[in-house]
Design a protein that fits this description.
Length: 474
């Protein structure tokens, strides 16, 4: 096994999915607070109003992290908890995160701070439509500046935007995240503004001389061609350009990929470049690439489109997009991969895809990589004895850790591995049915119950992995 001595074994979460305390101590509404209150937007109309109550139970959760031996914990800060209106600093919110960070450090856990994990202040959405207005660039930069000032001497790794490709595409294409629209040009416009805001934050980080590293986390599903047919290969290339490089090139090179821009032109889609945009993007190159990996993606040429595995179990325990056509469907189509098994939610299980992702990032960008998310969403059963026997999760994670080791042997520089997630949490469109954690939180969509924590079998497995620095995987 090839893990360096300073390799960080960690786990991850997001504020809206764990904190609860939705309107306590000066916190304002986020777009997710408002969105999840609308009937039909989430599974069984569940919300993060209580979530798993990390806000009041963080000391208990950190104690469990310490027991497991966790070396790093990636968590996000809620913008509307720091600034209810998106601009005015709320000291109670600021102090809450000081307490969380200090508790992590006191327990020997490296804090990794995510600046934005989808919970935009509703006030800014109401005022100027959030990510669709360039006004957000200054507001986001000021928010980041406050975080840098407050926590800059405590945080060695900062994640600026989490899964920008997901919150823009699901919000502006698939219409299953706020603001729940489907318009490809609006999607591209909002995404470009998010790129500028991210670059502005990175630029501010450097100007302030923060002694740490900063990068964005990208949800990367490396593209495969389903067959060796040349048209399928070109389709996979187009998918890679428009679904992956379209973001990663901006983070790592400070510019959009040429072929992606040209392919968008064929669809009559254009980026609204204004004076200074290209210079700002160039000034916002990241120090590392954050990689959120769950599955690979397989493609065929548009004319070879075929029926794929449906959402299966997910359609019963999730909200599924009803949008059937988007402009890029003219270029490529998703296809099943007959060589891969599927999760309960019909996501392809592909540990080698993680190795592929790490190698492609290394070859194209020569950046260190922080694996900021990787995990298995599944149905878990709590026994009468208070046990959760999740061998399926252990097997999934073991095979992905082996893939990381192989990628390191290939020459990839990997900073650390943050599983998704440490505790079970609110899963956006899946309520509490889709569980990811090492720690089972006893609640469901109907009731928060007592929110009691139970250590799953995977808790003890990861404990041994950390203790042996990846040598003990059985």
């Amino acid at each position: 096994m090839s893990f360096q001595e300073e390799f960080l074994w960690g786990s991850a979460s997001a504020a809206y999915q764990i904190e609860g305390a939705a309107n306590l101590d000066g916190k304002g509404d986020s777009i997710w607070d408002v969105y999840s209150r609308v009937p039909g937007n989430t599974f069984k109309n569940t919300t993060g109003e209580v979530a798993i109550d990390f806000y009041h139970r963080f000391e208990e959760d950190v104690a469990l992290m310490k027991e497991m031996g966790l070396q790093a914990y990636r968590f996000s800060v809620s913008w509307p908890r720091i600034m209810a209106d998106g601009r005015t600093v709320n000291r109670q919110g600021v102090e809450f995160y000081h307490k969380v960070i200090d508790t992590l450090i006191a327990n020997g856990i490296t804090p990794i701070l995510t600046i934005y994990h989808w919970d935009l202040p509703q006030a800014l959405q109401d005022e100027y439509q959030g990510w669709e207005s360039r006004d957000i660039i200054d507001d986001f930069t000021r928010y980041c500046e406050v975080l840098f000032e407050e926590y800059g001497d405590k945080i060695p790794y900062w994640v600026s935007l989490n899964e920008q490709n997901i919150f823009t595409s699901l919000g502006y294409l698939q219409a299953i995240h706020p603001p729940k629209v489907s318009d490809f040009q609006r999607f591209v416009n909002a995404n470009h503004i998010a790129n500028l805001a991210n670059a502005s934050a990175v630029k501010k980080f450097r100007e302030m001389g923060i002694e740490a590293k900063i990068g964005a986390s990208f949800a990367y599903s490396p593209a495969y061609a389903q067959s060796a047919k040349p048209e399928d290969v070109i389709a996979a290339e187009d998918a890679q350009e428009l679904q992956d490089l379209f973001w990663m090139d901006v983070y790592a090179k400070g510019r959009y990929p040429k072929i992606a821009l040209k392919r968008l032109e064929t669809l009559n889609i254009h980026i609204d470049f204004q004076p200074g945009d290209k210079e700002l993007l160039a000034a916002g190159v990241c120090d590392f690439m954050g990689l959120n990996y769950y599955q690979s993606a397989t493609f065929v040429a548009a004319e070879n489109k075929q029926k794929t595995a449906q959402t299966g179990n997910a359609s019963q325990v999730s909200v599924v997009s009803e949008i059937s056509d988007i402009p890029t469907d003219k270029l490529f189509a998703r296809a099943d991969n007959e060589y891969l098994e599927m999760t309960d939610w019909n996501w392809a299980v592909d540990p080698n895809g993680l190795r592929v992702a790490l190698r492609r990032i290394t070859s194209r960008y020569e950046l260190p990589i922080l694996i900021s998310e990787n995990g298995l969403g599944a149905f878990d059963t709590l026994t009468e004895e208070g046990k959760v026997h999740d061998d399926y999760r252990i097997d999934f994670l073991r095979r992905h850790v082996e893939a990381i080791s192989e990628a390191i042997d290939d020459g990839c520089e990997v900073i650390g591995y943050c599983t998704w997630s440490c505790q079970d949490l609110f899963s956006w469109l899946n309520g509490y049915a889709k569980r990811y954690g090492f720690i089972y939180v006893d609640r469901d969509e109907e009731s928060a119950k007592e929110l009691k924590r139970y250590k799953k079998d995977s808790f003890y497995w990861y404990q041994k992995v950390i203790e042996t620095n990846g040598e003990q995987l059985d």
